Description:
- There is one protein chain.
- By secondary structure, the protein is α/β, with parallel strands linked by helices.
- It folds into 2 domains: about 1-285, 3-Layer(aba) Sandwich (Rossmann fold); about 290-489, N-(1-d-carboxylethyl)-l-norvaline Dehydrogenase, domain 2 (Orthogonal Bundle).
- The chain is about 45% helix and about 10% strand.
- It has helices spanning about 35-40, 45-50, 70-80, 115-120, 150-155, 165-180, 195-210, 215-220, 240-250, 290-315, 320, 325-340, 350-365, 370-375, 385, 390-395, 400-415, 430-440, 455, 465-480, 480-489; strands spanning about 1-5, 30-35, 60-65, 85-90, 95-100, 105-110, 125-130, 185-190, 230, 250, 255-260, 265-270, 285.
- The strands form 4 sheets. It has a 5-stranded parallel β-sheet, sandwiched between helices. The protein has a 3-stranded mixed β-sheet with strand order 5-4-11.
- A hairpin with a 5-residue loop joins strand 4 and strand 5.
- Helix 7 (about 195-210) runs antiparallel to helix 8 and helix 17 packs across helix 20 (about 465-480).
- The longest helix is centred in the middle third of the chain and has 24 residues, at about 290-315.
- It holds the Pfam family Mannitol_dh.
- It catalyses: D-mannitol 1-phosphate + NAD(+) = beta-D-fructose 6-phosphate + NADH + H(+).
- This is Mannitol-1-phosphate 5-dehydrogenase.
- InterPro entries: 6-PGluconate_DH-like_C_sf, 6PGD_dom2, Mannitol_DH, Mannitol_DH/Oxidoreductase, Mannitol_DH_C, Mannitol_DH_CS, Mannitol_DH_N, NAD(P)-bd_dom_sf.
Amino acid sequence: xxxxxxxxxxxxxxxxxxxxxxxxxxxxxxxxxxxxxxxxxxxxxxxxxxxxxxxxxxxxxxxxxxxxxxxxxxxxxxxxxxxxxxxxxxxxxxxxxxxxxxxxxxxxxxxxxxxxxxxxxxxxxxxxxxxxxxxxxxxxxxxxxxxxxxxxxxxxxxxxxxxxxxxxxxxxxxxxxxxxxxxxxxxxxxxxxxxxxxxxxxxxxxxxxxxxxxxxxxxxxxxxxxxxxxxxxxxxxxxxxxxxxxxxxxxxxxxxxxxxxxxxxxxxxxxxxxxxxxxxxxxxxxxxxxxxxxxxxxxxxxxxxxxxxxxxxxxxxxxxxxxxxxxxxxxxxxxxxxxxxxxxxxxxxxxxxxxxxxxxxxxxxxxxxxxxxxxxxxxxxxxxxxxxxxxxxxxxxxxxxxxxxxxxxxxxxxxxxxxxxxxxxxxxxxxxxxxxxxxxxxxxxxxxxxxxxxxxxxxxxxxxxxxxxxxxxxxxxxxxxxxxxxxxx
Length: 489
């Protein structure tokens, strides 16, 4: 058994890929907020590939954690010299492990905020990237404006306060760079948000304006925010994943990452300075990301929502179980064909019909073992961005909404906190208390859940949506998820 660290790299099982480059020659160029599974399976992996070709050695990543639970990541990364194992899981059971070496540092911000600011203000830092989840941008779902009520943002707005949030650190660092005459870094959002670069720019500018209007003007004029679309199914690491890596390959890794074989990154080439040569390792550099972004959000992400609540209520616990059931597959393809796809612009170079069937194959990969609980989490940050826009466009064009209405009804039913077998459901959402309280009235006040205008806007005022939604919710209560789908088949 080999504990993963720099000293053990040369003695690992030969089936485990390791960096071919000298990690001591890497210098930092990127600061990343939100080092979780996805970042380590995606952006860090692409840089590792470049470094293996002897390139981008001045683009090492320094991770930053700002939340209390990031402390564990800091401890694991410190113990492993910032190394970790990425394990690609193929449908036939084949595993492909590789140690990734592109992350060269990790800072836990609450322990030393000034160390984070020093790294952010270093002229060598030319990109600040983000995977802080959809909710991390503090967008009011109805107005599209900054919701500054978050306690972390409020604390960062206090005069003289050291920053504690990602927003606070970025704005303070830009202010210090501006004062010192250092060019601003590029801010690269990699979260699942339509127009993620535009959203990051708008929200950070609004936050900056509350602190210093002149700084907000500088940000809007001088800082670049490329849009991008990122895609790779990366489930939460389970103990079984650590055990498999240890038993089959002799690697003791405190926090490996598992993922599917598929990976895609479509990136707008809009950087304030130089950037890694991402295009040399398969990243699609384009002028307009939006068609690819909408394709992913409204087909992949929205389909995850279409399968997770219904599947969970029907007794399934993994995405692959749902997508090996023809009844559910037909429903997913029905949503994608009749509701998701009609809202999409042409996507250059993509066969949408092939893409949709490829999604089903990816979801059905039994080795990934993506839990429905993960897909059901933080729905209040997901459904309003991924599915509600589909409903709105379909209503405006007088097209069908029955699939989407059932998905929203299945979320409302799931939020009741009890499945069809009477077992408790752990609802994980930043708005959990409000959602569960409203869902408790689904039977006697069936429109209460969707009357939350912060999440659904004025959908509750549309007679066609109300009819489809209430019929779906009633069927879920009276007949259950499976019978509801069977009645539609």
